[in-house]
Structures are given as C-alpha cells and as structure tokens.
C-alpha cells in the first residue's frame, strides 16, 4: 500500500486565511443597512386568508378566502366582499396553527385598524362586527405597518 504525505506549509495556510478574511471584509462592507437590536424585522408572508363567522368562509379553514397581493407592494393584501355580524381574523396559511394577523384588543371594532401578529395562532384575538356594521368591505392587510383596514363600500 502506497502512502502519500502532505506537507504542512504554514505560509500557504496564512495566505489562504488572509484572502478569506479580505473577501469576507469586502462582502460585509458592501452591506447598505446596519441592523440594531431595536430594529423590527419585517415578516413577509406569501399569502393571507380571511377566516371567521363574519366572512363567507365562516370558521372552515379549508374555505378560507385568499386575499390578493398588491403587485406594486408585496406586503399588502386586499379583498372586497360581504361581511356579516361576527368575528374575523387573517391567517397566513390554511391552518389554525399558522401565524395570524389578529386584532390588537379583544372584540376590537373594525373602525380600529391596529393589528398584531399572532405566531402559531396565539393570542387568539379577533375583530368583531356588529349587525349595524355588516355590509360590503374593502379589507387591506399591511404587513409592514401591521394594520388591517376595513373600508365600508
């Protein structure tokens, strides 16, 4: 059996290590934004679905209504349609264990657009529509602003 020995050359190793550090420095220096610990990191979802007994889907997650992404702003989704008295929230997948856009407070009126992201569906907080508020709405979910705007048509 023939064995081959590899000679250890510290000067070549040092050159390769130096080139690696220079390359990493160039890549890091080309970054345009410096992140700070307090900076919010945007969560971008590819879909948003309407669910709730105030919507035509009721609480059937398989029938959840897919909202339309704004082609000019991929962080906004819209839908126009009928809402009845009841509760509503917005799933990011057709699963009750997905992340949701939910109301900031329990039984929040649709006149208040403040929202929060409920990771894995918790907390389970919904907007509530009264019978007097029922009608056709244009709904906009804005991921960057973390808002859900209900505009009665």
Quickly list its features:
153 residues; Immunoglobulin-like; six-stranded antiparallel β-sheet; 10 strands; elongated; SusF/SusE-like_C; transmembrane
Q: What class, by secondary structure content?
A: alpha+beta
- Report how far the terminal alpha carbons are from each other: 85 Å
Give the averaged pLDDT, no decimals: 87
Helix content: 10-25%
CATH architecture of the domain at 49-152: Sandwich
Number of strands: 10
CATH domain topology of the domain at 49-152: Immunoglobulin-like
- Give the count of helical stretches: 1
Write down the secondary-structure element order: HEEEEEEEEEE
Main beta-sheet strand count, sense and barrel state: 6 strands, antiparallel
| Highest-level CATH class of the domain at 49-152 | Mainly Beta
- Overall geometry: elongated
Q: Low-confidence spans: pLDDT under 50, at least 5 residues?
A: none
Which percent band covers the strand fraction? Answer: 25-35%
Radius of gyration: 25 Å
């Amino acid at each position: 059996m023939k064995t081959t020995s590899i000679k250890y050359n510290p000067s070549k190793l040092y050159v390769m290590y130096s080139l690696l550090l220079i390359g990493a420095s160039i890549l890091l220096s080309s970054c345009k934004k410096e992140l700070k610990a307090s900076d919010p990191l945007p969560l971008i979802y590819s879909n948003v679905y309407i669910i709730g007994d105030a919507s035509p889907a009721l609480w059937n997650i398989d029938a959840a209504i897919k909202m339309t992404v704004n082609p000019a702003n991929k962080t906004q989704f819209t839908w126009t349609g009928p809402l009845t008295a009841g509760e509503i929230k917005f799933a990011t997948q057709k699963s009750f264990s997905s992340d949701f856009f939910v109301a900031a407070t329990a039984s929040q009126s649709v006149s208040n657009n403040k929202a929060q992201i409920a990771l894995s569906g918790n907390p389970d907080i919904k907007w509530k529509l009264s019978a007097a508020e029922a009608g056709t709405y244009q709904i906009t979910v804005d991921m960057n602003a973390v808002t859900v705007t209900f505009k009665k048509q």
